[in-house]
Specification:
By secondary structure, this protein is α+β, with helices and mostly antiparallel strands. The protein has eleven helices and 13 strands. Strand 4, helix 3 and strand 5 form a beta-alpha-beta unit.
Length: 351
């Protein structure tokens, strides 16, 4: 399957960037958040902005906590239904990354109503609705605005037993690192915009970006899982560094063990790289040590912005088999061990 023919109308032509590649660069975001006023921090707020975690968590009682998050972006693909489906999957991922179960969602919709046909806008919403149906939750409301660029996403609300809550902190020296989905979505999207995506690659990208990160629920119940997050706009290195900073550890990643989308390395070598990849590297490259075999294309894949990317798990070595089994049970055939956690300052070594 190739990218669908949507005629003259290409959704990506309306946006300056697509998917999670639209995120503000990590260094700039850290500076913005660092200067924000702390505000009210009640005891029941179990997770706030302190470690750049995937969602906020507010405890209701001994066995229930509300998980709340939001995510939205401009088109990463031209097909409106596919755009809606990818955006919804991406938004729900943050709930799963906390070990939580989604309850319902609210739609966030910004569209250039004078430039996009109503049926095109409706197809975006239908794509998001289909994913929420797959996740067995309703879209219970939302908000719409007339905007210059097409924007779609969700507010996602979930619930978790506080004893099963997972965060992007808590990784321990000796832990194994496991990644649930292949890398390369940003590279594929760059090739798509230049109409250089190989035959069949669009279907592969769509399958990956619309696969709900449901293993997060089972991972939340595992004592051997020490840290959990999902890999999105900051790339694998960016989100790995968030785990390292929050946990006070270092990490070692073996590039040859990374799951990659089939044509990702070839496309990156051919220069199909997003601007966000370079911005990401500029933000945190000083905290990364690259081995001699890591060339510019491989480095680009390490900082490649992932839209609806995979779960990144730090777990005790003896829990590795159970973690991989949880992924396999939900159809994540590409999940694999990619490295390990060690003592040391917050840095990532890639060999």
């Amino acid at each position: 399957m190739n990218a669908p023919d949507v005629g003259i109308l290409r959704l990506t032509q309306f946006s300056h960037g697509g998917g999670c590649g639209c995120k503000i660069a990590p260094a700039a975001l850290r500076e913005i958040i660092a200067k924000a006023a702390p505000g009210i921090v009640p005891e029941a707020l179990l997770v706030g902005i302190e470690t750049s975690d995937d969602a906020a968590v507010y405890q209701l009682n001994e066995t229930q906590a509300v998980v709340a998050t939001t995510d939205f972006f401009m088109p990463i693909v031209d097909d409106p239904y596919d755009f809606g489906a990818i955006a919804a999957t991406n938004a729900l991922s943050d709930v799963y990354a906390m070990g939580a179960t989604p309850l319902f969602a609210l739609a966030l919709v910004g569209m250039p109503v004078d430039r996009l046909p109503v049926n095109t806008i409706r197809r975006v919403l239908e794509g998001g609705e289909a994913i929420c149906t797959k996740a067995r939750i309703p879209i219970a409301g939302g908000h719409t605005i007339d905007s210059v660029e097409p924007i779609y996403g969700l507010v996602a609300i979930g619930v978790v037993d506080p004893r099963h809550l997972k965060r992007n902190v808590g990784a321990l020296p000796g832990d194994a690192l496991i990644l649930g989905k292949p890398l390369g979505v940003g590279v594929y999207s760059a090739a798509l915009k230049k109409q250089q995506l190989p035959d069949g690659a669009y279907a592969t990208m769509l399958s990956c970006t619309t696969q709900l990160n449901t293993p997060g629920i089972a991972l939340g119940r595992m004592d051997g899982v020490h840290a959990l997050t999902d890999v999105t706009g900051f790339g694998l290195l960016g989100h790995m560094l968030e785990v390292c900073r929050g946990s006070g550890v270092a990490a070692r990643i073996e590039f040859n063990k990374l799951p990659l989308l089939p044509a990702a390395l070839a496309l990156a070598t051919a220069g199909m790289i997003t601007g966000a990849s370079a911005r990401n590297w500029a933000s945190y490259g000083a905290e990364v040590a690259l081995g001699q075999g890591i060339d510019s294309a491989r480095r680009a894949l390490l900082s490649d912005p992932q839209t609806s990317g995979g779960l990144l798990v730090a777990c005790a070595p003896e829990a590795t088999a159970a973690v991989l089994s949880a992924f396999r049970a939900e159809g994540f055939a590409d999940a694999r061990v990619i490295g390990s956690v060690s003592d040391g300052p917050a840095r990532v070594e890639v060999v």
